[in-house]
Sequence to fold (331 residues):
Amino acid sequence: MSESFRAILVSRDEEKKQSVDVVELTEEDLMEGDVTVRVEATTVNYKDGLAITGKSPVVRHWPMVPGIDLAGTVVHSESAAFSKGDKVLLNGFGVGETHWGAYAGLARLSANWLIPLPRQLSPLQAMGVGTAGYTAMLCVMALEKHGIEPGSGPIVVTGANGGVGSVAITILAKLGYHVIASTGRPQEAGFLTSLGAAEVIDRKELSEPGRPLGKERWIGGVDAVGSHTLANVLAQTSYGGAVAACGLAQGFDLPSTVMPFILRNVALLGVDSVMQPKEKRIEAWDRITSDLDMGKLEDITSVIGFDDIIPTAQDIVEGKIRGRVAVDMER
Fold:
């Protein structure tokens, strides 16, 4: 009989009432896949918080082992792409939503979803980055592709204390950008400036309904908030600028007008992290190893154990988490 391991299992009954339990599973219980990975590290993202708390319909297959990110070691492979003992990394592809994810001792996955863990990173460091940091890097790459350079002007980062925001600030500052951090926790201004933010503004300046066009304040933005915040960021973007949008913490609506787009030539760049092709994933992670200050990553990362995942999921949905959370599955 296979060795058992602990897992977090999200279920719901006939009345669609959700429950979350810690259960014992074996390898035979896992879903289909051609690579089995021993999960050494994972993380708690905002999406993971939504899955565990049921605050938003993230889970689309029941029951579900949540956890959209993992890093670990291959223990069995039927794919020529990976061999037993390889260190691998996964972000997205519906894992933790439609396919059992990271909050378990083992995960059986498709080889197409995995990339080699960068040699410069430990599994725990990679999960300190996680989907949030990887998404932040994709946003920076999108702005660069649009021609936004450090000399072009300031970049605003919304949700600055969150996972995407804190990593985006760190990367942009290292690359030489003038970063304006928008946060609902102004008492954290010192933390944000330590990451490299040149200015810190209160999110109230952006979170309420605003004018179709405002004063030009920045050439670009990284937005993980959506709704009125994104509308106001667009309205205050300078001529020819661009905003990379990757989240909806405030809401999925966009109460804007076409005016920023047709009068100021502003571009809205949608950034998805879930289904990015392997080449783009590898490029982003290569950039992370060179353009993210690992010392600052350590400063913004809290390390927890398996038993802390469920309460941390609640905290992240309630906006109580600063920076990144990495989970040491062997703790």
Summary: The longest helix spans residues 123-145. The first strand starts at residue 5 and ends at 12. The chain has ten helices and 15 strands.
